[in-house]
Design goal:
Blueprint (H helix, E strand, L loop, with lengths): L9 H12 L2 H24 L5 H39 L1
């Protein structure tokens, strides 16, 4: 008997792929951020409404926070790589 898995949407497939490389918490935060940006675009395109100043500031705050977290994480990974390289140099 063969097991036939249901088809996976491209979005779900990319989410599954991203979880192989990043933690679930980071992936879910990024996904929520993209959902916010998509909601802004959909609101403007489909409904002809422009977001208010408070909505725009809130979205900007979320995007800035996610960007800062990504930057912080990248710097942390670089520092850890440098420490590992220093340890390798000492062992030689």
């Amino acid at each position: 008997m063969a097991f036939n898995a249901p088809p996976v949407s491209p979005t779900q497939g990319l989410l599954i792929l991203s979880l192989r490389f990043e933690s679930a918490g980071s992936a879910s935060v990024l996904r929520c951020t993209l959902d916010i940006l998509l909601a802004f675009a959909l609101e403007a395109a489909a409904f002809g409404q422009t977001p208010g100043a408070a909505q725009a500031m809130g979205a900007a705050l979320v995007v800035a926070t996610v960007g800062f977290e990504g930057y912080r994480r990248k710097k942390q990974e670089e520092e850890e790589e440098e420490e590992q390289e220093e340890k390798r140099q000492l062992l030689r």
